[in-house]
Amino acid sequence: MPAEEIIDVRSDTVTLPTEEMLDAIRHAALGDDVFKEDPTVNRLEKIAAEKMGKEAALLVSSGTQANLVSLMSNTNRGELVILEAESHIYWYEVGGISTIAELLPWPVKSRFGALDPEDVEASIRPKNIHFPKPSLICLENTHNRHGGTIITPDHIKAISEVARAQGLKLYLDGARIFNAAVALRTDVKEFTKHVDNLMFCLSKGLCCPVGSLLVGTDKFIERSRKIRKILGGGMRQAGIIAAPGIVALESMINRLEEDHRNARRLAEGIAKLGGIQIDLSCVQTNMVCFDVGNLGINADMFVSKLKHNNILALALTEKKVRMVTHRGIEKEQIEKSISAIDNISNELRLELK
Ligand SMILES: Cc1ncc(COP(=O)(O)O)c(C=O)c1O
Asked: Is the pTM of this model over 0.85?
């Protein structure tokens, strides 16, 4: 008997490399990347820099390492960093911004992840003996904890004007920046041209097994290279990581549109069910978040009920469940998920009566 299919929609990080990626790994030309001698890494970094409209790029092991290296490279110890209150750097990176980079994070709240330029300006305090020097503003696009929402190029521009006027640098955690670009049907450079530097991930919707890239000026990347080494991130024959990265940049970006279509399908299906609340305006890319609070249950309990139906999701907050579409999640898995959510919510509503 075939095993029951598991529908894993916890994250797009669960994606596996494609056959083309595995072939590329097998045939990659390799060298020692600490000596800058890995031709495949060099090629990936060149492609990444060109795609983002910047001078240079650097391959690192993960999104978290990319953010940490960038924080350290953009600042000096003891300075203040303005970031969105729900940002990945603030929530999920084990406090590396403080414990390793020795910076003061200054969280600013927003609606849907897009910082209000006036709030950013207000958070930049004047020079004063009591205050640390503010040096960096961080944005996140798409915004993970806000449910994959997009920060538009115009919005980034407005924040960049504040940064420039106040002499601060602007950094983008663009782990899923290609989702934003594909969703708005625009070139990714429309986003990146407003920031000093950024990172993006290969290992999420683009399906690579490992890797993220930092992108910025030659000077920023050289400083980052040294910091990556301090953090133990100098890799040797890293071409085996870079090879699938090249495949991703050449052939995996446009398919993100399918993930967005499936997320929309899932969200619209859930919106029709009773007892569950969902804000369709927030479903902009490959994430779907919904509120189960009215069912008399918290998100963790709802997630375990889904697990009994072979569906893996994540509890995002006390009441919100998150599902993320990616390669391998097709219309059929979406229909099954909607039907399981419907059954669970009907059972719970009966219990509430
Ligand atoms: C917005 C954002 N930034 C950074 C990261 C960290 O990436 P990694 O898991 O590769 O460390 C993630 C991971 O989900 C993310 O969503």
From this structure: yes
